[in-house]
Amino acid sequence: MSNLEQEFHQLLGDNSSLLDFVNDTNYDGLWIRNLENNLYWSQDKFWELLGLRKPAEDFDFDPSTVMVKEDFEQIQNIIGQYLSNPKGSFNAILRYYKTDGTIVWMNCKGKAILNADGKPIRIIGAHAELGKIVENQELNFQSNKQAKIGFWQLKTDDNSLYISITTKQILEIPIQFNPTINDLKQFMNPEVIEQMLNEVIVNGKIETIQELTTFKGSQKYFRIISTNTVVENGEQKSIYGTIQDVTSEQLGQKKLKESEEKYRLLVDNLSDILVHVNPTGEITYVAGALKIELGYSVENVLHQNLLNFIHQEDIQFVLRDIQLILKGNKNPEIICFRILNTEGKYKWFRASALELYGPDGTIEKIQVLLGNADEMIRSKQELENSKRFIEEATKIGRVGAWEYDPIKGELYWSDFLREIFGVDEFYCPTLKGALGFYVPESRTTISNALNGVLEKEGSYSEELELINANGKRFWIRCSAKSIHRDGKCIRVNGMIQDIDYRKRLEIQLKEESEHRKRVAESLIIHKEKIRNDMYNDLQESVNQLLFAAKLNIENVLSDSEDLNTALNHLTSAINEIRRVAIENTSQFILENDFQDIVNEYLSRLNERENVRFYFDNQISDWNGILPMMKVHIFRFFQELVTNTLKHANATEMTMRLKQNQSEIILVAIDNGVGLSENHNDGIGLLSLKNRVYLLEGEYKYRTQKNRGLIHFIRIPILNGKFSGTRLF
Predict the structure, then answer these.
(1) For 523-545, what is each residue's pLDDT tens digit?
(2) 143 CB burial (10 A radius; 0-12, 13-18, 19+)
(3) pTM of the model
(4) What DSSP line would sit under 260-275, residue for residue?
(5) Residue 697 class from Cβ within 10 Å (0-12 exposed, 13-18 middle, 19+ buried)?
(6) Backbone torsions φ then ψ of 4, nearest 5 degrees
(7) pLDDT tens across 263-289, in order?
(8) Cα separation of 602 and 713, whole Å?
(9) Is residue 62 within 8 Å of residue 76, measured between CB atoms?
């Protein structure tokens, strides 16, 4: 016999209250625990119930190894509270694991043994198996737990309260806390609790749903069922019942009610018309904008057949949709039809339908939502007209559209684009195939442009030449813009315009322009050559003859005043011919300073003419200008001076020369009579215009009668050099 067992028997013999406690217990194993060293002893029957071998000696028994975790935590809290005030005994229903994996329910009772100082030193107790009753209770417990149903009992004689673990979970009460009825009243609604207790006392039973506050302060809805059927000697002994968390259900119903109210408010204020019709077409319900849209009251249309209000031409489409719905088609198309209003006119409405089922699972009615479609139909008609106009415009403008999806690799061509490429409607365009229509030079250009917008969002516009499927070679303008998302191209939209006529005309005009330039160039070169040849002849032949005549006269005559005069004239004639010959050759202009040449030229004019000439030269550095440009500018000066002397009747003329980054500008201003509206250009102005045209420049003039003439000449320069090269 172990020490605790011997001590247990001794205690039973010495302590009559313990003997009474044991005798009152229908036990299946007495036990004792030493609180000083935590050793434990129990009778054989307890170990046999669990399928365990009885220990030979007292040992430090850990109940958590054989007890359901939840129950172990519960008994720990119960014993802890009991030992803090060890009066009477404690009682708990616990679940133990058997070695075969099943659970055995036991009623565990215990009582503390105190030392002389009143301190608990031992606990003796007993286990009593509860058997099938508790197994059934366990089933109820699990089902109640899943349904969030908890059990509670209130003894009316001492107001002691028992609540199950599920009840604690529902009310968010800590497991270790065993509240009294007053505790419940404190955190729940005290008035509601008091009212329910009074009702069950008076009526014997109640069932109610109340919004109450949990231990943690949450607001929840609970279904409470209670009865007071436990009666002893005609007096009520206790009230017991169940409590269920129905918060989700109540909130759902509340939201449903709010949703129904909002739905009703929405329907009543619809800008559309909501109609219910039965399978025969009878209107059974109507709401919304009926009065506003059609002028009818609800009474005017209720129980009427919907088809009575629909235009005759549209009835077949409505009947078709009704039949589709009745046959189980869940998504009939949205159709538009005309409905008669109270003014005898028809209005267009768009209609969407939904089947509504009855309790037997068959279609009870069809819900139809009617929306005013008058504006939509008018817009659609305008859109169709616009579409036809655009189609005609694209044909006139010979423009076709295309779209490329780089993700799918799909290319779309409009009908007119197929016409441009000479393919029929069965041709399936691809990017590779489309590029194959272009001539090699254009294929390189369009490939580079397309790759550019595929890599980075942007656009391009190129004039390209292609050969279509019929072998026709012509010019088009291809424009496109890419759309990117998250750094990746998702679409390229573009258009192609037939510009063959314009392009060929442009090429023809360019060729004619080139031809005119060649002719003008030839004339100017020829003119320069004649001028050089003429002045060379003057210098080499006529000037030599005059010089020889001078020598002969000197040999024949002497010391005569007439002789000296003749010799002076001959000398002046020789010098003048030489000067004119030198100044009018290109070589002389090229080899001398431009400022000096012009100054000398204008100085002699000022000596012998009645017109004063001024020159404002703002070009200080001629290094960046090709040498022959000086020749052309000097020829402009000569033509303008000659024209002024012959026709302007002016007293003065100013010429200004300047240069910017892109052009040389010559401005000449006189104070003469100007030009009449019907004047014809003379040889001098025509020669000037031809030279400007050849140099790819621009010539303009501005004149007013008797207020002079202003000439503007602009010659382009590229990268510091003159752009035209034929005469350079």
Answers:
(1) 666 666 666 666 565 555 555 55
(2) exposed
(3) 0.34
(4) HHHHHHHHHT-SSEEE
(5) buried
(6) -65, -35
(7) 555 555 567 888 899 988 899 988 888
(8) 20
(9) no
